[in-house]
Amino acid sequence: MxxxxxxAVGSVIAYLLGSIPxxxxxxxxxxxxxxxxxxxxSTGATNVLRTLGKWPALAVxxxxxxxxxxAILVARWFWPWLTAELSPTPSAAADLQAxxxxxxxxxxxxxxxxxxxxxxxxxTGGKSAATGLGVALAMSWxxxxxxxxxxxxxxxxxxxxxxxxxxxAVAAIILVCGLPHPLPYRLLVIAGGLYVIIRxxxxxxRLLAGSEPRLGQSSPDVKAxxxx
Length: 228
What we know:
The chain is mostly helical and 228 residues long. It is built from twelve helices and no strands.
């Protein structure tokens, strides 16, 4: 019972952290616009870059990464504290510590869902790539660092953010399976990586059609707006 109580509460906290609508707030605070009505209509850093500029996009990117980091750190702190409070004996509390990786897994998935399906935006949001990177960094820095390196290299070569994000997600899955990690961590990264890729469905279609914009180019939605 203690595991389910702690897991549920920790997951709610992680979801609420992930659901902070950073890109949406940037649009409202800086220009008084709903960023979901501009560009690609995503609340992620890439659409913020196209709509608001470089520095707002950088701020959104950093905060979105930190949301993922915070969700994992809270899970690692909150779980031991709550299980100690709920456990009648030290030995029972020690037994529950073995469940910490599962608590981290639940928190990571909740943070990704929060970013992509924010309760504050009628369950819409971004594609969860930046928050996923934060989760990976806090969960296992080698996996997070390797993921960031793959993203940076692909972006430098292709100048396509969506392709970089999806290949980084694939790299994270390969790294977490290739390095020694507990099963919950592997399940988290596999589920999170697939979720990020699925959230890029429209980008995959544009990549196949050869119409996916590169950095510095307007998205098809931006061009359509300009012609109206």
